[in-house]
């Protein structure tokens, strides 16, 4: 707000800033997080092999009752209180029984039906069903089976393994799958220990008042991340909100506590980086900038963007946070 603005006198104004809250760390280096051993088991490898076989299955039309694993083509309608629901207008759908694309109660009612059969049945949705308009309600399904196909799975042979890339035999494919499974588990365990370590430090730290504008800004960031994630799934955000029966304001309220925790975690990481005098070198930033250019080539940003001070500062903050988290894990993860 302008306090004084007159010819021949000093210009005075009043500005209000939101200050980063104070933080006091506890004795965080005395904390301990135990890393759990991980392994990739043979039955997990075989489960992946089976999934790959099912993905490449041929479906052959058959004249028998529906069984688990069959592909079914059907028309169906859904009625609630004797009125056809908007979601249940006559549809033709294909699904594989046992894959969980429909409710288990629906699939159970299809077992044994043949092409040409029709059936009506009712199921009651669970009280906590995601689509609230169906939660706890009885819904009548009217189905007409148009076709039944049996899955013919390819044998897991050396020739079949070669079709997935640079594998000479099924043994090499199994070994590659097992290696990937182990890598995924190790990554998940690293993420778990990181989150546990940060949570423990957060619980032993004390914070000044978190400015509302920070919480509001982080809440909007979380909402934007969710929107982007939904759109990547080829679903409009409006449709997503309709499915979960919530509004953007409902989500904002749900995100508020999580947003405040995110802010506190960021403050912890920055404070430890400062206290431990952690730095990011120009060489580290330059190397990461080159990686970013390569990864985002053709995504709309010109090279000038990756040379800008704005991007450089952002990247330096990311690298410093990464280094601080690595330091934290090195201190307390055992």
TrEMBL record:
InterPro entries according to UniProt: PPIase_dom_sf, PPIase_FKBP_dom, Trig_fac, Trigger_fac_C, Trigger_fac_C_sf, Trigger_fac_ribosome-bd_bac, Trigger_fact/SurA_dom_sf
GO annotation terms (biological process): protein folding; protein transport
EC numbers, comma separated: 5.2.1.8
Domain annotation Trigger factor C-terminal: ranges: 172-329
Chemical reaction(s) catalysed: [protein]-peptidylproline (omega=180) = [protein]-peptidylproline (omega=0)
One Gene Ontology cellular component annotation held by this UniProt entry: cytoplasm
Keywords: Chaperone, Isomerase, Rotamase
Highest taxon listed in the record's lineage: Bacteria
Protein's cellular compartments: Cytoplasm
NCBIfam families cross-referenced by the UniProt entry: tig (TIGR00115)
Descriptive protein name: Trigger factor
Organism whose genome encodes this protein: candidate division CPR1 bacterium GW2011_GWA2_42_17
């Amino acid at each position: 707000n302008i306090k004084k603005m007159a010819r021949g006198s000093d210009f005075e104004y009043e500005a209000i800033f939101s200050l980063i809250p104070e933080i006091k760390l506890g004795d965080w280096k005395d904390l301990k997080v135990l890393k759990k051993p991980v392994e990739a088991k043979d039955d997990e490898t075989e489960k992946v092999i089976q999934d790959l076989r099912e993905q490449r299955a041929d479906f052959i039309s058959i004249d028998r009752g529906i069984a688990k694993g069959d592909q079914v083509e059907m028309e169906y309608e859904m009625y609630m209180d004797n009125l056809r629901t908007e979601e249940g207008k006559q549809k033709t759908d294909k699904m594989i029984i046992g894959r969980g694309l429909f409710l288990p109660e629906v699939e159970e009612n299809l077992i044994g039906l043949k092409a040409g059969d029709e059936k009506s049945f009712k199921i009651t949705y669970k009280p906590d069903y995601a689509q609230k308009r169906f939660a706890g309600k009885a819904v009548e399904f009217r189905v007409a089976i148009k076709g039944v196909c049996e899955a013919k799975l390819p044998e897991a042979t050396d020739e079949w393994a070669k079709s997935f890339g640079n594998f000479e035999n099924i043994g090499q494919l199994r070994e590659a799958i097992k290696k990937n499974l182990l890598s995924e588990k190790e990554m998940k365990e690293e993420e778990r220990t990181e989150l546990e370590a940060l949570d423990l430090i957060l619980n032993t730290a004390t914070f000044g008042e978190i400015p509302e504008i920070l919480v509001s800004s982080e809440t909007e960031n979380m909402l934007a991340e969710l929107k982007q994630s939904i759109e990547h799934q080829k679903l409009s955000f409006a449709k997503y909100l309709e499915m979960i029966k919530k509004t953007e304001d409902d989500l904002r309220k749900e995100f508020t506590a999580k947003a405040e925790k995110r802010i506190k975690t960021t403050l912890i990481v920055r404070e430890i980086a400062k206290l431990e005098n952690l730095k990011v070198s120009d060489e580290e930033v330059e190397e990461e900038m080159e990686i970013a250019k390569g990864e985002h080539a053709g995504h709309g940003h010109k090279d000038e963007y990756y040379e800008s001070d704005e991007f450089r500062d952002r990247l330096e903050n990311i690298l410093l946070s990464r280094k601080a988290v690595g330091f934290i894990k090195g201190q307390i993860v055992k």
